[in-house]
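A quick aside before the break. I want you to see a complete sequence-to-structure record at least once, exactly as it would be stored in a machine-readable document. Don't worry about memorizing anything.
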Amino acid sequence: MSKKSGLTIKSNGLGKALSNPEKIAKDMLKQGGSFEVKCPNCGKQFKAKVGLNLCPHCKKEIDFKIK
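That is the input. The structure line, written in tokens, reads:
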């Protein structure tokens, strides 16, 4: 069995650079977009959609959420 790890995107003060990062992320979700994320287990990057994903490098399950 694989252990679930979680990734969450939160606003972290970059609102000055991006007028509304949450709205941008939600708009991407509506269009079926994916995000470039870093695996919390192995540290390698891969494209993930919101929900459960499998890291292609370490094969661990990642629960990707946007708040």
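Two observations worth writing down. The first helix runs from residue 21 to 30. The chain has a mean pLDDT of 76. We'll return to this after the break.
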